[in-house]
Amino acid sequence: MTETGTSSGTPSHRPAGISRETLNRLPHRALGVDVGGTGIKGGIVDLGTGELVGERFRIETPQPATPDAVREVIAEIIDELLSREEAPAQEDLTVGVLIPGVVVDGVVYSAANIDPSWMNTDLDSLLADLPGRIRTLNDADGAGLGEARYGAGFGQDGTVMTITLGTGIGSAVVHDGVLVPNMEFGHLEFEGRVAEHRASAAARKAADMPWEDYGRLLNRLLTHVERLTAPRLFIIGGGVSKRSDDFLPFVTDTRAPVVTAKLRNNAGIVGAALFAAEQEASARAIRDGAVD
Fold this sequence. Notes:
The protein is an alpha/beta fold. It has two domains: about 25-145 and about 265-285, Nucleotidyltransferase, domain 5 (2-Layer Sandwich); about 155-260, Nucleotidyltransferase, domain 5. It contains nine helices and 15 strands. It has helices at about 20-25, 65-80, 125, 140-150, 195-200, 200-205, 210-230, 245, 265-285; strands at about 30-35, 40-45, 50, 55-60, 95-100, 105, 105-110, 135-140, 160-165, 170-175, 180, 190, 195, 235, 260. Strands 1, 2, 3, 4, 5 and 8 form a six-stranded mixed β-sheet that branches. A five-stranded mixed β-sheet has the order 11-10-9-14-15. Strands 6-7 form a two-stranded antiparallel ribbon. The longest helix has 21 residues, at about 265-285. The radius of gyration is 18 Å and the shape is globular.
């Protein structure tokens, strides 16, 4: 992995829009938890390098995946991580939690790929009694932030777009290192259908689509998205990215390079931890009246 840290534990490449004061206030480590359709996983993240400290911890997603049932699993994962010697001290603890839905000010406003009971769930209330200062965001946003700041997009100026291909299609937009949240390009109309119903990894598998055909389909989708957003880099994530050599050679018409995610299945955990730590550090800087 590209080295992204300094001896102080803060990223060596300061994104535009992230103040030096905020970076100086980041803890050395934070927790990230990524809620998925089949599994909920978490880890301790070194914020200087973007790497996990120790093994990630995973528990099967409860069925039905209601807010209360998922909250219990999140609590169990946090407890396990805090029991480890490498865990952050309680007074410095920040925890990022990713949810597969649009999240605005701690409230879930979509449930396309999650149990419908999550609609309008107040995450701040749901998770209020868990340890640490918890921040929440969309799952693709977490993965995209992790990739842009520590992975395939590290050091890239301008707009970096991460596309996650799985049960649906997630998308994350990061501009000069700063996340623009809840960009749901998987729900665009594309060739007469919702994009993720036609071009997700699950849709490819259901249609028994050859990889070459899938690559050409993604080529059309990404050129369509590029006309709307003009990113400087596309990053392809999700489980299907392990097979990128089978389909990315057929993505040929975008101006922006198209590369495979580097952090793989840890991208969400890393991005969640970073998001929570930066949000808390920014809030502290504002409370203390600190500016660059």
